[in-house]
Automatic annotation (TrEMBL):
EC id: 2.1.1.386
Catalysed transformations (reactions): small RNA 3'-end nucleotide + S-adenosyl-L-methionine = small RNA 3'-end 2'-O-methylnucleotide + S-adenosyl-L-homocysteine + H(+)
Gene Ontology molecular-function annotations: metal ion binding; RNA binding; small RNA 2'-O-methyltransferase activity
Protein name in the entry: Small RNA 2'-O-methyltransferase
Superkingdom per UniProt: Bacteria
Annotated keywords: Magnesium, Metal-binding, Methyltransferase, RNA-binding, RNA-mediated gene silencing, S-adenosyl-L-methionine, Transferase
Ranges for domain Hen1 N-terminal: 1-242
Claim: RNA-binding is one of the keywords in the record: yes
Methyltransferase is among the record's keywords: yes
Gene Ontology BP, a term: RNA methylation
Length: 476
């Protein structure tokens, strides 16, 4: 298995300093499944090429595997593509051979570490599940130009068709550390075969190597899932850390009033939202940012709601919700009414489309401005429920909290708290833009000067067709 990296930075021979490999020698690096040979076929000031030739020992591979590989055929553990293709073993070899460069260090020329350089990479054979589209989805957002050559199953028998093996050429201008971290993570993601070493520490590797680019990558969910080999719980934990900025940092809302009052206030809020949803005649409801599932519990107690879906970005909150709602113990008919999913309100998600109503209880204030702009589209443009109920703190009421200094917010993770005028300005603009009507209601006791603790907006679509359909199906 051959990986070739060519650099045309001037002088190109700087690459040998960056990779800490003397250009005059062949370096043999042992990895647990074989040997990586590192050598330079070309070194000049204009162009420098380094090769990593990975020689996998198939016997060592079988010995290392804890059980038989797959059940496709009896000899699969001896006869397979692993010695010949780029896979997680290539990542292991890159990490071992170029560890100093991957850690962003260069002893002799430290100033080179941060310099973006023009690179060309060739991976002689890489299996790609999903083909060209997947390669593009992975590498293009990182700025790579891609040249892919797909190989037939057997050139002697063209009728056998194409294989899933490609020669992949990539071009980009970036630092060597960036390049190596991209290859380290994305090679096994392309391959998507079983690795032998998936475990908790893989999350750490993924997060550590991907920390500078993965959180902003549009395919981060796909990358995480594949890298962690579809082990949902590991992938979810990793996603939660990647999305840290979007989460609250605490699983529960923590408003400022005294604790027991806080619970009571929150219950009132949830009841007000439930009542709105009942009144709207919604039969299917999605609770966006459902947290520990307090609203879901209220909804499940009402027969009107035939289907409820809770979505939250926080996996931990969802696990608490699952426990509190006793999902494992519900009778089948009840269990079918409810579902919990992990997802972020900042990405379009088909799973939240097609509901009669959506609720967002104390969620919007946890999002930054660009995220809020995304959320607005995702809900009102794409998911388009008939009714949307949103609650958020009323900032004017904060003056009534003794312990809260003027100008401070009720919760450390709140990105904003709006006055009634601000909330209404936002809501009116949305209603106008997406063809909804909106009414605003106070939740809790209303103070004549500053209003109520919580403010609520109830949006209803003006699209007659949806309204008619619901009218026609109502009472069936
Ligand atoms: N609605 C719940 C929880 C409110 S706390 C209740 O009233 O009890 C805010 C919730 O929003 C948290 O559970 C947090 O994880 C979730 N959240 C924050 N950003 C999110 C995002 N981008 N996508 C989905 N949920 C998000």
């Amino acid at each position: 298995m051959l990986l070739t990296i060519t650099c045309t930075h001037q002088p190109a021979s700087d690459l040998s300093y960056l990779l800490h490999k003397h250009p005059g020698k062949v370096h043999d690096i042992e990895i647990s499944t074989g040997v990586a040979h590192v050598f330079y076929p070309e070194v000049s000031s204009a162009r420098c090429t380094i090769c990593l030739l990975l020689d996998i020992d198939p016997v060592a591979l079988v010995r290392r595997s804890s059980g038989p590989r797959g059940n496709d055929f009896a000899l699969e553990q001896y006869v397979n593509d692993r010695p010949y293709v780029a896979s997680s073993f290539m990542s292991a070899a890159i990490a071992k051979a170029f560890s100093t460069a991957m850690n962003g260090r260069c002893k002799d020329k430290p100033e080179l570490v941060a310099v973006p350089m023009p690179f060309e990479v060739e991976i002689a054979a890489i299996p790609v599940r999903g083909g060209e589209a997947v390669v593009k989805e992975l590498f293009e957002p990182l700025g790579y130009t891609i040249i892919l050559q797909r190989h037939p199953v057997d050139p002697q028998f063209p009728e056998w068709g194409e294989s899933r093996y490609f020669t992949l050429r990539l071009k980009n201008t970036l630092t060597v550390q960036q390049l190596l971290s991209h290859l380290y993570i994305l090679i096994p993601v392309c391959d998507n075969d079983k690795h032998y070493w998936i475990g908790q520490h893989e999350i750490e590797k993924l997060l550590e190597k991907g920390k500078d680019w993965l959180p902003a990558h549009p395919a981060k969910e796909f990358i995480t899932m594949r890298y962690l080999k579809h082990q949902r719980s590991l992938a979810n934990q990793a996603m939660e850390i990647l999305l840290q900025d979007e989460t609250t940092g605490s699983a529960t809302e923590d408003d400022n009033p005294e604790p027991e009052q806080k619970e009571r206030v929150h219950d009132l809020r949830l009841q007000a939202v439930r009542d709105e949803l009942l009144q709207a005649n919604a039969k299917t409801v999605v609770d966006l940012g459902c947290g520990e599932g307090k609203l879901l519990r209220l909804l499940m107690a009402e027969k009107q709601f035939e289907q409820v879906l809770g979505m939250d970005v926080s996996y931990r909150s969802l696990e608490i919700a699952k426990d509190k709602l006793k999902l494992d113990k519900l009778p089948t008919a009840q269990r079918k009414r409810i579902e919990l999913i992990q997802g972020s309100l900042t990405y379009r998600d088909k799973r939240i489309e097609g509901f009669d109503a959506a609720a967002l209880v104390e969620v919007i204030e946890h999002l930054d401005e660009p995220q809020l702009a995304a959320l607005e589209k995702i809900i009102f443009k794409y998911a388009k429920p008939v009714d949307v109920v949103i609650t958020t703190p009323n900032a004017e009421y904060n003056t009534k909290f003794d312990g809260l200094p003027a100008g401070e917010m009720r919760h450390a993770d709140h990105r904003f708290e709006w006055t009634r005028a601000e909330f209404q300005q936002w809501g009116n603009r949305i209603a106008e833009q997406y063809n909804y009507s909106v009414v605003y209601k106070p939740v809790g006791e209303e103070d004549p000067g500053v209003g109520a603790l919580t403010q609520m907006a109830v949006f209803t679509t003006k699209q007659m067709i949806i309204g008619m359909n619901r009218f026609l199906s109502y009472g069936k």
